[in-house]
Design goal:
Layout lengths: L1 H17 L3 E5 L3 E2 L28 E5 L3 E13 L3 E12 L5 E10 L2 E2 L5 E2 L1 E4 L4 E9 L12 E9 L7 E9 L1
Antiparallel strand pairs: 1-4, 2-12, 3-4, 4-5, 5-10, 6-7, 6-9, 6-11, 8-10, 11-12
Length: 177
């Protein structure tokens, strides 16, 4: 009886996940490097704005120093008929250090309004000498103001090491849509 109930529960969950459609829209945008703080870097000269076959990808280098290279790949708005709206801000992060690093998002705002931290999710570990995709997810939860993301996105890319508590860097990210 318990096996039948468990199988029914699993089938229901899988059925719900399979139901519904997801539509995706690559937002595109231009990284604004006007406010270059002491830790900001200039975008690389060889950065492509649109990779063939990938409409509206941004592919802008946010940081490139002796510790890491972080590239803002794209921003994607998603609408799922069951799970609702979400926004993904996707980075490619290369760790040049000898210890692992952690990449997080801080002070996220969209269209000039701070995004409630309850809606945010981003924490990616990158091992020494490796690369990883770090994704900031902004999920639409009832009772919170979900950003429309019409004109701009600003955030701070926060990088640190659990192995070396002295290491910490912050990189401003400003995208005009």
């Amino acid at each position: 009886m318990k096996k039948n109930l468990l199988l029914l529960l699993v089938a229901s969950v899988l059925g719900l996940a399979a139901c519904g459609e997801t539509s995706e829209e690559n937002v595109g945008g231009t990284v604004n490097s006007d406010d270059s703080g002491p830790e900001a870097t200039e975008p690389a000269e060889d950065t492509e704005q649109n990779v063939e076959g990938e409409d509206n990808e941004i592919n802008e280098v946010i940081a490139d120093n002796e510790n890491l290279k972080a590239t803002l790949v794209k921003i994607v708005k998603k609408t799922h008929s069951t799970w609702g709206n979400s926004i993904e801000v996707i980075f490619d992060v290369e760790n040049k250090r000898q210890d692992k690093i952690e990449v997080q998002a801080r002070s996220v705002s969209a269209d000039g309004r701070m995004v409630d931290e309850t809606l945010l999710s981003m924490s990616q570990e990158v091992a020494a000498g490796k690369s990883a995709k770090a994704t900031l997810s902004i999920e639409d939860y009832e009772g919170y103001k979900f950003p429309e993301l019409n004109s701009d996105l600003e955030m701070e890319l926060h990088v640190f090491s659990w192995d070396d508590m002295e290491y910490e860097e912050n990189f401003p990210v400003k995208v005009e849509l």
